[in-house]
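Open question from group meeting: does this chain pack into something compact, or does most of it stay loose? Before anyone orders reagents, we agreed to write out a predicted structure and look at it together. Recording both the input and the output here so the notebook holds the full record.
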Amino acid sequence: MKNAKLDVHARLMKSYKQVPQWWFLSLLLGSMILSIVMSFVWKEEVQLPWWGMLFAFALAFVVTLPIGVIQATTNQQPGYDIIAQFIIGYVLPGKPIANLLFKIYGESAPSMLSLSYLTSNLGTT
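Structure tokens returned:
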């Protein structure tokens, strides 16, 4: 890879410093803490308890890598959003906002952020 010729964009990006990994991890931890605090402060409006947030985070963590590898190698993204909605709908029936938040934290955010990162890295190597 060192002998590869860099395109114009890669040459321009070399002038910037690499963002440290701790910065991304602190953003992740901060957003997770704020989400859990939100489930305590606005309990009635949010309808998703703190353990539901943790379950959404765990589900996103577990499925991001396998779905990212499938998408990077086949260009097909298997969706698990309906399965996630069924799970939280069964656990918390009659709470549509909890269902929506669980889908956002457990499916939408990882598929938008992490999977685009995984596909860009796995598709080029």
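Observations to bring back to the group:
The chain is about 75% helix and 0% strand.
The helical segments are 8-13, 21-41, 43-46, 50-74, 81-91, 96-122.
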